Amino acid sequence: MSKMKKVVVIGGTGLIGSKAVKLLQDAGHEAVAASSRNGINAYTGEGLEAALTGADAVIDVSNMMSLDKDVITDFFGTSSRNLTSAEQAAGVRHHVALSIVNADKLAANPYMAGKLAQEEAVASSGQAYTIVRATQFHEFIETLAGAYAADGVVKVPDIDFQPIAASDVAAALVEAALGEPKNGTVDLAGPERAPFESFIRAYLDAKGDGSPVTAVATVDYFGAPVAKGSLVPDGESIKGRVTVAEWLKA
């Protein structure tokens, strides 16, 4: 094992962050689970100087949900500028940010616009970095099924889907943080690619819900027009290991 490193996980108490913290600790590293709950706030800058002292890397999985494009782009952009500036002052070696596959092509969606603002702030900061763009999480499938349901039918976009387990995302972020900065983006996706509706159908079947699921070409993705490959990598990608079927069984 490499020598112990200090890694600060921004958003370290959330779904991905808490898993990343545990992986780091289990490997013998010092992991700081940074969140506003313990006085560390990337958006305001509160507590960053102390938290980053002696840190080798930062993993940023901070998050907010909003339908207001201005609000969400401000959050991600400001947080990233504060973080990278504080990292440079503290001598942090590597900044790792979690984004979304094809965020730059789906900026009509407010959340995707926010992630794009985050990517741009990081890339222009002068701090060594890696941006890990992941596909949608297995844990998000329930939300998707509900969002596209109406009048007893689930109508989803006619697109491909390649979801990934949160545990696989956390593992990839930790591996990236302990490695060398790419100063670019890498794509991360689940082990299986198939039509979107097949994953929704599998989820509903596991829940005993027999609602019809249909793919409709004119249905968008939360405000963003989509084509067949909009939510999946269009080139090389790191692959997760956990399939949706395995996740549903667990």
Could you walk me through the main structural features you see in this protein, from its secondary elements to its overall organization?
This protein is an alpha/beta fold and 250 residues long. Helices cover 36% and strands 20% of the residues. The protein has helices at 15-26, 48-52, 69-90, 110-123, 141-147, 166-178, 196-206, 244-249; strands spanning 6-10, 30-34, 57-60, 94-100, 129-134, 149-150, 153-157, 160-161, 185-189, 194-195, 213-216, 238-239. It has a seven-stranded parallel sheet, sandwiched between helices. β3 (57-60), α3 (69-90) and β4 form a beta-alpha-beta unit.
Low-confidence stretches: none
Distance between the termini: 30 Å
Question: What is the number of beta strands?
Answer: 12
Query: Strand count, sense and closure of the main sheet?
Result: 7 strands, parallel
In total, the number of domains comes to: 1
Assign the CATH topology: Rossmann fold
The backbone outline, from C-alpha atoms, is globular
CATH superfamily: NAD(P)-binding Rossmann-like Domain
Give helix and strand order, one letter per element, not per position: EHEHEHEHEHEEEHEEHEEH
Residues in helix, %: 25-40%
CATH architecture: 3-Layer(aba) Sandwich
- Spatial order of strands in the largest sheet: 2-1-3-4-5-9-12
Secondary-structure-based class equals: alpha/beta
Please work out how many helical segments DSSP would assign: 8
